[in-house]
Amino acid sequence: DYAAALAMLQKTNESFAALRRAVDLGGEAVREFARKDPRFNSLRAHPDFNRLVPPARQRLPLMNLPNLPGL
């Protein structure tokens, strides 16, 4: 929340420092939160944001494979 508040106040450097610390402590859960939180909209186009919070990997749908004998 601190990093998001700083982003809303246009304190870009401070926001990235706080977000980096939050990611160090909370990992993927923090990244997922930052991906969805609109308070980070002002930072999304910044290369540092994309390095810290890369887009979520898309999961491929499961394929229905035929029953292959011997496998």
Label this structure with key terms:
mainly alpha, single chain, 71 residues, 4 helices, 0% strand, 52% helix, elongated
Q: What is the structure about, briefly put?
A:
52% of the residues lie in helices and 0% in strands. It is built from four helices and no strands.
Q: What would you say this structure looks like, in words?
A:
The protein has 71 residues and is mostly helical. It has helices spanning 2-8, 12-26, 28-36, 47-52. Helix 1 packs antiparallel against helix 2 and helix 2 (12-26) packs across helix 3 (28-36). The longest helix has 15 residues, at 12-26. It is elongated, with a radius of gyration of 18 Å. The N and C termini lie far apart (50 Å). The mean pLDDT is 89.
Q: What is the element string, with H for helices and E for strands?
A: HHHH
Which structural class best describes the helix and strand composition? mainly alpha
Strand content: under 5%
Could you give the count of β-strands? 0
The portion of residues assigned to helices is 40-55%
Uncertain ranges: none
Count every helix, treating DSSP H or I runs of 4 or more residues as helices: 4
Spatial gap, N to C terminus: 50 Å
